[in-house]
Amino acid sequence: MRKGSKNTRSNNFDFSGQVFHALDDKYRLVIPQQFREGLGKTFRVVISSRDTLYMLPLSEWEKLQEQLSRIESTDPQYRPVAERMRAFSAVVEADKNWRVLIPKELREKSKLTKQVVSIGQGNRIELMDREFYEREIAPQLDSEQTKRIQRSIGW
């Protein structure tokens, strides 16, 4: 499937690929071309478990909210997770040039500097600081363990 291509089986977008880019002087992010159609002009930004940011279409946020409500009502241990994800999230809207302002609280929580990386993660896009990517993500992508696991699933 192409980068950011339409997944006709589930009627959702399949975000894939990675883009190295920068926030401008006002801390605005230009949404990469390949992610625009699937993300839409108005979308949700939410903290991830590794303190990066997920950008997801509002329809995916609604699905996540349903899932969080279900699990927190059946098991109280999930309530802090749901509260964290709701507390560290925001709806943002792209301007005519596809720039969005990443809210200061989310920028600080995710330790974003000017240099960032956006990575398609299926139904969402993960935004992270480039130093974090170089230190934590890039080594895993090319590790022998990752390649071995990839071969084990036939790819």
Describe the 3D structure.
The protein is α+β, with helices and mostly antiparallel strands. The chain has a single domain, classed as Transcriptional regulator MraZ domain (Chemotaxis protein chec), CATH 3.40.1550.20. The protein has helices at residues 33-39, 58-74, 79-87, 104-109, 130-141, 144-152, and strands spanning 5-7, 12-14, 18-22, 28-30, 42-47, 53-57, 89-93, 99-101, 115-120, 125-129. The strands form 3 sheets. It has a 6-stranded antiparallel β-sheet. Strands 1-2 form a two-stranded antiparallel sheet. The longest helix has 17 residues, at 58-74. The radius of gyration is 16 Å and the shape is globular.
How is this fold's topology laid out?
Elements: E1 5-7, E2 12-14, E3 18-22, E4 28-30, H1 33-39, E5 42-47, E6 53-57, H2 58-74, H3 79-87, E7 89-93, E8 99-101, H4 104-109, E9 115-120, E10 125-129, H5 130-141, H6 144-152
Antiparallel strand pairs: 1-2, 3-9, 4-8, 5-6, 5-7, 6-10, 9-10
Descriptive tags:
28% strand, two-stranded antiparallel ribbon, disordered N terminus, globular, 155 residues, Chemotaxis protein chec, alpha+beta, six-stranded antiparallel beta sheet
Overall residue-averaged pLDDT value: 91
In CATH's first tier, which class applies? Alpha Beta
Count of DSSP E strands? 10
Shape category:
globular
Backbone structural class: alpha+beta
Number of domains: 1
